[in-house]
């Protein structure tokens, strides 16, 4: 069970890393870059399996908040 939990955490971190890289790339490509970027991730785990739960792959949510200072 512990090994499966470690593997599941590794999978989750891979997903988070990939999502964060995509957000960074999107922000960097913007003509008017925001002053602040806030990102939150949600990944669902199955405690019995020690794996990420999904109907077809990985179930994850991503919330991105961009803001610009008034300067």
Could you characterize the architecture of this molecule?
The protein is built from one helix and four strands. The radius of gyration is 16 Å and the shape is elongated. A two-stranded antiparallel ribbon has the order 1-4.
Q: What would the keywords be for this entry?
A:
71 residues, alpha+beta, two-stranded antiparallel sheet, elongated
CA-atom Rg in angstroms: 16 Å
Question: Spatial order of the strands in the main sheet?
Answer: 1-4
Give the rounded overall mean pLDDT. 78
Terminal CA distance: 53 Å
* Main sheet attributes: strand count, strand direction, barrel closure: 2 strands, antiparallel
Report the helical percentage: 25-40%
Q: How many helical stretches?
A: 1
Low-confidence blocks of residues: none
Number of strands: 4
Beta-strand percent range: 25-35%
What layout of secondary structure does this protein have?
Elements: H1 2-28, E1 36-43, E2 45-46, E3 51-52, E4 60-67
Antiparallel strand pairs: 1-4, 2-3
Summarize the structure.
The chain is an alpha+beta fold.
